[in-house]
Design a protein that fits this description.
Blueprint: H1 2-20, H2 24-28, H3 38-58, H4 71-78, H5 85-105, E1 114-116, E2 124-126, H6 127-146
Length: 151
């Protein structure tokens, strides 16, 4: 788990300034009404952090909790394009630092506990898998932000 914590910490350090340096017009631009802006992609990563905090915490004391979310509705409802970029970046940083703390405090015997993330069918994943996948998911969306490939 320490490797995952280190990777997430490195992502926060590496990308916080880069994200803040994106011009506001570019950050909020929707190239297509059906796709997310870069700002909305960062908002989605914030939503992912919030939902994964629930998974990492609740799975340690509940039996296979069912934790899912509708990512498009979350982004739409929260209007990330209208959000202050500075505040959005800070929220992303703080939520991910909090995840690092949660993972650092997780006893090793809890890594194998399972959470149900399936929308319609049961999909059980261990906390260790979810933590690793969280990094993969982050990298995917950070590449979208910096390669002009919107969601």
């Amino acid at each position: 788990m320490q490797q995952i914590i280190n990777q997430l910490g490195a992502l926060i350090d590496e990308y916080s300034g880069k994200i803040s340096d994106i011009p506001e017009e570019e950050f909020s631009l929707k190239s297509n009404p059906a796709k997310w802006s870069k700002k909305e992609i960062l908002g989605h990563l914030i939503d992912s952090a919030q939902n994964n905090i629930q998974r990492f915490v609740r799975t340690q004391y509940e039996n296979k909790p069912h934790i899912v979310y509708n990512q498009d509705r979350w982004v739409e409802t929260q209007n990330y394009r209208g959000y202050s970029t500075k505040d959005l970046v800070q929220l992303w940083q703080l939520l991910n630092k909090h995840i690092c703390i949660i993972l650092a405090n997780m006893p090793e015997e809890n890594y194998s506990l399972q959470c149900n993330t399936g929308k319609e069918l049961e999909q059980l994943y261990t906390l260790e898998f979810l933590a690793k996948d969280y990094i993969t998911h982050h990298l995917h969306h950070l590449k979208q932000i910096f390669n002009n490939q919107n969601e």
